[in-house]
Amino acid sequence: xxxxxxxxxxxxxxxxxxxxxxxxxxxxxxxxxxxxxxxxxxxxxxxxxxxxxxxxxxxxxxxxxxxxxxxxxxxxxxxxxxxxxxxxxxxxxxxxxxxxxxxxxxxxxxxxxxxxxxxxxxxxxxxxxxxxxxxxxxxxxxxxxxxxxxxxxxxxxxxxxxxxxxxxxxxxxxxxxxxxxxxxxxxxxxxxxxxxxxxxxxxxxxxxxxxxxxxxxxxxxxxxxxxxxxxxxxxxxxxxxxxxxxxxxxxxxxxxxxxxxxxxxxxxxxxxxxxxxxxxxxxxxxxxxxxxxxxxxxxxxxxxxxxxxxxxxxxxx
Length: 317
What we know:
The protein is α/β, with parallel strands linked by helices and 317 residues long. The protein folds into two domains: 3-110, 2-Layer Sandwich (Alpha-Beta Plaits), CATH 3.30.70.120; 154-316, Vaccinia Virus protein VP39 (Rossmann fold, 3-Layer(aba) Sandwich), CATH 3.40.50.150. The chain is built from ten helices and 14 strands. The chain has helices at 15-24, 40-46, 73-87, 108-111, 158-170, 186-193, 206-218, 237-243, 257-263, 287-296; strands spanning 3-11, 30-33, 60-68, 98-103, 119-120, 125-129, 142-146, 176-180, 198-203, 226-230, 248-254, 271-283, 300-307, 310-316. The strands form three sheets. A seven-stranded mixed β-sheet has the order 10-9-8-11-12-14-13, with helices on both faces. Strands 2-3-1-4 form a four-stranded antiparallel β-sheet, with helices on one face. The longest helix is centred in the first third of the chain and has 15 residues, at 73-87. It is globular. S-adenosyl-L-methionine binds at residues 160, 181, 203, 254. It holds the Pfam family PrmA. GO terms for molecular function: protein-lysine N-methyltransferase activity. Keywords: Cytoplasm, Methyltransferase, Ribonucleoprotein, Ribosomal protein, S-adenosyl-L-methionine, Transferase.
């Protein structure tokens, strides 16, 4: 069987957001080609001695993904274009041109799974793909199982790690937690396993909500403990009312700086007095802009955590 290859033209700054959008649509694997140099740490991990010369002034990026021949590619392309239109409100997504080609039969969709193994996020939080056995489980471990067919947030990226570590530090049993931009549901699931009484996740993409519900089931968490809703919490008045006012002890958002900035002016109404706003997905070059927005919207900064090029801000209402 041959595969249909679709290559999307975008910009470097939008790659992460576009990649997440594609995963939300059920696309299980992507390839990224850009001109972003790898870090020294990545070079050592990949055992690369001679790096290719890159035109770092060129901000174009190409994201390729694959469909089976019988898939309705016109429907997928339309969904991708709609997703790009939504994202363009927050980041320049470039031309959005999509090139279509064919490739030979390969098992790329499953081969990558060999490289996704259980890993320990810290001393007692373990992320485990559903098909892998956990051989080194310790007493007190919190194990999060994820189905790779629907999840895109595995906890391995610095932004997700920062959020998880903040939840572990500040969440106490019985709290109410709001997860904005819940994606695969990983933060909601971890909050629930850390003892949150109730977690509500929201995401603008209904496919992300479906992924969250599936991963919730994999982790044997009930819908009463963790619920998920589709919609834009910043603009959808009906969703805002459903989410509830001054109801949550913690709101967590692992998105992007350009979304966190306006969100910081909206999220406070959902937090109890003294509630915490944990935000991540902030590239370090935009840290000061985020801090200014969070402070300007009535929050006191409790902590600023950094990991690699990424920043997390923890603030109190």
